Amino acid sequence: MAKTIIEKIWDSHVVSQQAGAPALLFIDLHLAHEVTSPQAFQELRDRGLKVRRPDLTIATMDHSTPTTSRDLPVLDKNGAAQLAQMEKNCADFGIRLYNRMSDHQGIVHVIGPEQGLTQPGMTIVCGDSHTATHGAFGALAFGIGTSQVGHVLATQCLLQQPSKSYEIRVDGQLKPGVAAKDIILAVIAKIGIGGGTESVFEFTGSAIRGLSMEERMTICNMSIEGGARAGLVAPDDTTYQYMAGREFAPKGADWDAAVARWKQLPTDAGAKYDRTLMLDASTLEPMVTFGTNPGMGIPVTANIPDPASVSDAGQKADLIKALKYMDLQPGKPMAGHKIDVVFVGSCTNSRISDLRAAAAVIKGRKVSPNVRMLVVPGSQQVKKQAEAEGLDKIFRDAGADFREAGCSMCLAMNGDELSPGQYSVSTSNRNFEGRQGKGGRTFLASPQTAAASAVMGVVTDVRTLV
Amino acid sequence: MKFAQLEGKTVVVAVENIDTDQIIPARYLKSITKEGLGEGLFRDWRTNDPEFPLNKPESKGAEILVAGDNFGCGSSREHAPWALTQYGFRAVVSTSFADIFKGNSLKNGLLPIIVPADVHKELLASPGAVLKVDLANQTLHLPSGKAVQFPIDPFSKECLMEGVDELGYMLKQDEAIQAFEAKRVGSVNTLQ
């Protein structure tokens, strides 16, 4: 029977299936960080359990981790305690940890692919909703809660119900100035933030095939923002070229055998999806969000929606509430709205190609004097590469702040945050109320749009600059 | 924790797409324990809006939260159901829930109850209503005398009703896991 890649990965990981119970699914790779794991390790201690497969977990520090110089101590007492606990947990249970001082440290979803840990056909989990990032490699990767982190540590398995399959087919050619981020923001604007509930997205089509691995990661990363459990792209030569030679990728004959296995993964001709959405890439414009969830996105050239034109009572109330929080006027253009901060970073857009895209716009220009711009590389390796290419100098010369690796202002746990009432253009994934700091207001956009907005001091269509 | 019957008062937060950042802001996630999260529940909405339903004296003691569509979207933080249960909630009623939140809730004795749009509308319009939740029969009894069925997967239902420990259940399958591991190819050794 013809199968989707989602079914193939699922079927090859079912350990057991008892009547009336969810499947017991084997997990190939578990990623851990300091915020959602401490209570899980405590659970193991309380029960006198060991980590079943320490060789299948990797840990790092990202969420509470300062992005200031590594020579400085962690000033926040609770953050420091959380990092110290992570050191202790990994030492006690024999787990490899890339701590704050490691040159492998970084955002958990940046370092997995970077080091070749993320591979096609794997099941990958992390106590973080953006785990679908790893789906770019044709892995079934999803976010889990802390109880489940404990389940994986103790058994290397999870109890799971099968998901529905949702094909997001994007064909056609992107116009200049339109990025992968704009594709996913457009998808979410179309289906809404609950549109993918109970589903796994498979992104298909010529536009997706034409994307680099880092662009595919940006798209899969935000699957959760469409409500999906996971999102993936079937592996192809682009995938194998990106992976070859990376630290944990198979080598020699093992590599050849692995590639032969991975080539069996793509969805069979004739396989059925539960749902399909078609999108023409050539119709897309650079996107920006105006509201308080990632589904509230519009082309940067558009006007702010008017609640008067919304018929559904719940949606209308939602929109009114969002515009009130954002202090925006219906009908006014998005472009030209004043901003205070620009954040280039997060597991969505902090890889080397994102930094290159932002630097290309910034080069030879200055960040507007009214704007604070933070550039936060996704990992120490990304930072090193950016420095080797002179991108750090481009950002600093323009007046931007180029920082150490971490989640930073995506969720404002580490001291990098907006002040109440401030507006940011951010390359991160969530514009929820207070997400980037209490009272802060977020416009989500691509690195290109963020950089152009930093230069102009207002929300800017990058195509008017280049 | 066993969950069989619940008769409790509702508090209504009639907002769609309530994300877990609103339920428990990220600054409360620096804890290394599960304790002390109740005070963080809806912290910013409670602070900024005196009229927020949880601030009203009549909502005191409410055990059932009635909220708008797609409750619990966003972050995977299990701190969200921890905060809700520590505040005193035992069930949340909506038309739909985000997947990770729903799974996390069921593991913490917090029952997500999905109701049809017309019932939801009725509940949104009657804050403080006393509802009876009969998990065994998957039935929600409304003050009007109406009773509606709600869905729950049989395993989660059994876990809630019998207080089944999921991790204990999984650990008992050690033999099957060992057999699977013996033939598994394609994992990576992070300790190499």
Mind explaining what this structure looks like?
The complex is a heterodimer of chains A (466) and B (192). Chain A is an alpha/beta fold and 466 residues long. Chain A has helices at residues 5-11, 38-47, 77-93, 108-114, 146-155, 180-191, 206-209, 213-221, 237-243, 252-262, 313-326, 352-362, 380-388, 391-398, 447-456, and strands at 14-16, 23-26, 29-32, 57-60, 96-98, 123-126, 140-143, 157-160, 164-171, 199-204, 230-232, 275-280, 287-289, 297-299, 341-344, 372-375, 401-402, 423-426, 441-444. In chain A, the strands form five sheets. Chain A has a five-stranded parallel sheet with strand order 5-4-3-6-7, with helices on both faces. Chain A has a five-stranded parallel sheet with strand order 17-16-15-18-19. A four-stranded parallel sheet of chain A has the order 11-10-9-12. The longest helix of chain A has 17 residues, at 77-93. Chain A is globular, with a radius of gyration of 21 Å. Chain B is of the alpha/beta class and 192 residues long. Chain B contains eight helices and seven strands, in the order βααβαβαβαβββααα. Chain B has a seven-stranded mixed sheet. Chain B starts with a strand and ends in a 9-residue tail after the last helix. At the A-B interface, helix 2, helix 3, helix 5 and helix 11 of A face helix 4, helix 6, helix 7 and helix 8 of B.
Please give the structural blueprint.
The complex is a heterodimer of chains A (466) and B (192).
Chain A: H1 5-11, E1 14-16, E2 23-26, E3 29-32, H2 38-47, E4 57-60, H3 77-93, E5 96-98, H4 108-114, E6 123-126, E7 140-143, H5 146-155, E8 157-160, E9 164-171, H6 180-191, E10 199-204, H7 206-209, H8 213-221, E11 230-232, H9 237-243, H10 252-262, E12 275-280, E13 287-289, E14 297-299, H11 313-326, E15 341-344, H12 352-362, E16 372-375, H13 380-388, H14 391-398, E17 401-402, E18 423-426, E19 441-444, H15 447-456
Parallel strand pairs in A: 3-4, 3-6, 4-5, 6-7, 9-10, 9-12, 10-11, 15-16, 15-18, 16-17, 18-19
Antiparallel strand pairs in A: 1-2, 2-8, 13-14
Helix pairs in contact in A: 2-5, 6-8, 12-14, 12-15
Chain B: E1 5-13, H1 20-23, H2 43-48, E2 64-67, H3 79-87, E3 91-94, H4 99-106, E4 111-114, H5 117-124, E5 130-134, E6 139-141, E7 147-149, H6 154-162, H7 166-171, H8 174-183
Parallel strand pairs in B: 1-2, 2-3, 3-4
Antiparallel strand pairs in B: 1-5, 5-6, 6-7
